[in-house]
Amino acid sequence: MPRAKNGPAKKRARKRLLKATKGYWGSRNNLYRKASETYVRAMVFAFRDRKCKKRTFRKLWIVRINAAAKLRGLNYSRFMNGLTKANIEIDRKILAETAVNDPAAFDKLAELARKHIQAQNA
Questions:
Q1: pTM recorded for the entire structure
Q2: Among 38, 82, 83, 101, which residue carries the largest CB count within 10 Å?
Q3: Helices (H), 21-121
C-alpha cells in the first residue's frame, strides 16, 4: 500500500493556483507548471509596480501643478516655495486636483504664494 503524501492539500494548492491564473493566455492558465511560473512572475511585477505607481502619480501631480502655476505666472518651484513660506501645507495630490477642478481656489493659492515670495525678496 503506497504511503500518503498529503494529496488533498496538494490538490487544494493546485486548484487555488489555477483559479488565480484564470484568464491567462494559452496553456498558462491550465497547465500547472506554466501557470506557476507565470503567476510568480506576475506577482513580482505586481510588487514592483505598486511602488512604481506612487512615483508615477507624484510625477503626474507635479506636471499638473506646474502647468496651472505657469498659467498664473509662476513656475512649480517658486509656487511650492511660496506655499511653504505662507505655511500652507497641502499635498501635491490635492493641489493637482484643485488646479483641475477649482481654478478659483488655485488662483487664491497662487496669489498667496506670490505675495510671500515678494515679501521674502523685498
A1: 0.76
A2: 82
A3: 32-71, 76-85, 92-101, 103-121
